[in-house]
Amino acid sequence: MQPDWSTEVHRELAAAGVRVVGYVPDAGHKRLIELCQADGNMRTVPLTTEEEGIGLAAGAWLGGEKTVLLMQSSGVGNLVNVLGMVKVCRFPLLLIVTMRGEQGEFNPWQVPMGQSTARVLETIGVAVRQAGESQTVAPHVHTALRLAFEANGAEAVLIAQRVIGIKSFQEQANQ
Amino acid sequence: MKLHRRDVVKELLRDRKDLLVVAGLGSTAWDITAAGDSPLSFPMWGAMGQAAMMGLGLALAQPARRVLVLTGDGEMLMGLGALATIGVQQPANLTVVVIDNERYGETGMQRTHTAWGIDLAAIAAGSKFKHAITATADVAPVRELVYRAAGPNLAAVKVIDEKLSLVLPPHDGVLLKARFRRALLGPKAEPEASTDVLPKER
């Protein structure tokens, strides 16, 4: 049986030596957050807003450790100004973003940011990799890890909403 | 309020030894430079609101070293959520010192929220900081927090709202990052290249 994308991504993060995982929860990240919390080599850091993750990741890198940040697409909108520091200092950055406002979305208020996520990131200098199927998530993360931590790249992997498959309040409540 | 900010910062950085320092953008970045630039100081020229989180990341990565965040009241107010996030992580080696002149010093000395009595030490205490104090006359208790007390710690130091000469650190972000990592990590500062080839994009 093919392992789920969360398991594959956790393996990639562990293999790359990621030690700090900052997150603002998203239903789509539930499994990956749990895997990181259960990993004794990773420090998980719940954030009050996604912006905090940029400071966290930059500070950890100054201290010699690798960070990844987990968030949903709406959170990308909270990052814009502080991404200027990532660009001007060439701090390594890896965002793993679960998309909202796409196929199957039930909340129209998620749509504007969801439709703008990739463009916002590219505008401020973050390279975007779109994972449209579950089996492409881990390869994209693998590539992004290399470019972030070996070439001081700013990278985002966007996981399409059809990969996550959350469709209604009722289904979320039952998760 | 009798304290002068440059005196406070100079006293806090005296004989700093292994201390790692992050300074928030604006006056505190100039203050640490006036006290003497160091590769192990990271002065921020932007990312307002993120100084405390930079300190948290550094403190988690370097648990054997003490980490000091020096920042202003306006910068701290922009990222108050960081205090809650630090409170969850409980880094014993992190102290945040807010040089509080109750003003936005770089933009025309407009009043910040602390001028209306908003209490940063009380917010830190409510965020489960181990020590959270307001200092108005004596810097010695603040030095004690920075160098000895188990954290996380926060000190709000009330200072005179004086406009001082600019003493600017280097502003090239890549230089500031690289010199800090080299001074702290030595040869490990250079990213190692993997030997396997990049996978095909699917």
Chain-wise SSE layout:
The complex is a heterodimer of chains A (175) and B (202).
Chain A: H1 5-15, E1 18-23, H2 30-37, E2 43-46, H3 51-62, E3 66-72, H4 73-76, H5 83-89, E4 93-98, H6 111-123, E5 127-131, H7 134-151, E6 154-159, H8 161-164, H9 169-174
Parallel strand pairs in A: 1-2, 1-3, 3-4, 4-6, 5-6
Chain B: H1 5-13, E1 20-23, H2 27-34, E2 41-43, H3 51-61, E3 67-72, H4 73-78, H5 81-89, E4 94-100, E5 103-104, E6 110-111, H6 120-126, E7 131-135, H7 140-147, E8 153-158, H8 173-185
Parallel strand pairs in B: 1-2, 1-3, 3-4, 4-8, 7-8
Antiparallel strand pairs in B: 5-6
Task: Quote the distance from N terminus to C terminus of chain B.
Answer: 63 Å
Largest sheet of chain A: 6 strands, parallel
State the distance separating the first and last CA atoms of chain A. 22 Å
**What percentage of residues of chain A falls in helices of 4 or more residues?**
40-55%
Low-confidence stretches of chain A: none
Output the strand order for the largest sheet of chain B. 2-1-3-4-8-7
Mean pLDDT of chain B: 94
Major sheet of chain A: order of its strands? 2-1-3-4-6-5
Number of domains of chain B: 1
